[in-house]
Design a protein that fits this description.
By secondary structure, the chain is of the alpha/beta class. The protein has a single domain, classed as Alkaline phosphatase D (PhoD) (Purple Acid Phosphatase, chain A, domain 2, 4-Layer Sandwich). Helices cover 24% and strands 21% of the residues. It is built from 8 helices and 13 strands. A 7-stranded mixed sheet has the order 4-5-6-7-9-8-10, covered by helices on one side. It has a 6-stranded mixed sheet with strand order 3-2-1-11-12-13, with no helix packed on it. Helix 3 runs parallel beside helix 6. The chain is globular. The termini are far apart.
Length: 344
């Protein structure tokens, strides 16, 4: 019999299984409160975390720009992620609940970047290190950071699907004027890539969750502004709507970030048995420098141009099935916006 060093055996039979599943969310019997947000600059003051913690979330979901990395130097990226993880109030959130998420452009490494980014695979490693994914987890070999998690069981099951809108995204024509930066859509361009499209169809079609949450770093429903959004890729946006109609997942909610504002949008998608809601929460550390109007015919309530984070509060015992209340909150836990999601 071949002899192995004691340290190797200890790793193989003791630590290896722990390392493989170290990133898995802790078992949650029933999600009551889900908090989420995006656009967090690790170099800026971060007083928002103490107010997130005060809401006692069962889960935190990053919607992208978890740090502002903007570098192809992975030593620099690692240092920026490390600074974020050392934030005293963020550490409290880490101890309070599981943390999952996707990325957007700044933590991807390239502002407004897509599939052309030369450092995307190296950046993916830093991303997974930040979330504590083990070195031997098969997700690290995936082309992109898309993944899904399920919480609860039976009639209290929630599925969270995290999309990657960067790794496979085609290019856009850039105009010089800031307010019209992406006014020319890529009519045939794609966002997800065929591998991720196939995965997403399986995730939606096979979901037995009572509530499904689809997380996209960029906005899906709003289509009037000239910044990054799904509507810059009309064929991809239509394909996603058609996929949602085809698979008919129960009570699908879209979460998005990126915009440094917050808003709730409702879209009546023909062929879907209920209205599609999107909650955008963005601007944990910074927002627009000036207050201005922005057209969105799907918006419910106000456009929030203040630093914010979002909440989904699930009432599982409501008559007629679970009810979801979404909130947008800010510094001091000030309530900016509250909207019940009416699926009738």
């Amino acid at each position: 019999m071949k002899k192995y060093p004691f340290r190797f055996l200890l790793f193989l039979f003791g630590f290896a299984p722990m390392l493989l599943w170290a990133q898995s969310p802790e078992p949650i019997e029933s999600l009551q409160t889900i908090s989420f947000g995006s656009c967090n600059n690790q170099e800026k003051p971060q007083p928002m975390w103490q107010f997130v913690v005060q809401t006692n979330p069962d889960l935190w979901v990053w919607l992208g720009d978890n740090i502002y990395g903007d570098s192809d130097n992975m030593t620099v990226m690692a240092q920026k992620y490390s600074k974020q993880k050392r934030n005293r109030e963020y550490i409290k959130l880490q101890k309070q609940c599981p943390i999952i998420g996707t990325w957007d452009d700044h933590d991807y490494g390239l502002n407004d970047g897509g599939k052309e980014w030369k450092a995307k695979r190296a950046s993916q490693k830093q991303f997974y290190d930040f979330f504590g994914l083990s070195a031997i987890n098969p997700l690290r070999k995936r082309n992109g950071v898309y993944q899904s998690y399920s919480y609860g069981t039976g009639d209290r099951k929630v599925k969270v699907i995290l999309l990657d809108t960067r790794f496979h995204r085609d290019s856009l024509e850039v105009r010089g004027v800031a307010r019209n930066k992406y006014c020319v859509p890529n009519m045939q361009g794609d966002i997800l890539g065929e591998e991720q499209w196939k995965w997403l169809e399986e995730e939606l079609a096979n979901s037995d969750a009572v509530i499904n949450i689809l997380c996209s770093s960029i906005q899906l429903i709003p289509d009037k502004h000239n910044f990054e959004k799904w509507a810059n890729f009309p064929q991809a946006r239509l394909r996603l709507f058609e996929l949602i109609k085809k698979t008919q997942p129960a009570k699908l909610i879209v979460l998005s970030g990126d915009r440094h504002i917050a808003e709730v949008s409702r879209f009546d998608l023909e062929g879907l048995d209920y209205p599609l809601y999107e909650i955008t929460s963005s601007g944990i550390t910074h927002t627009w420098p000036v207050v201005k109007e922005e057209e969105n015919p799907y918006r419910l309530g106000d456009l929030i141009i203040k630093r914010n984070f979002g909440l989904l509060r699930i009432n599982w015992t409501a008559e007629g099935g679970p009810k979801v209340l979404t909130e947008i909150r800010g510094l001091g836990n000030e309530l900016f916006l509250q909207q019940e999601l009416d699926w009738e």
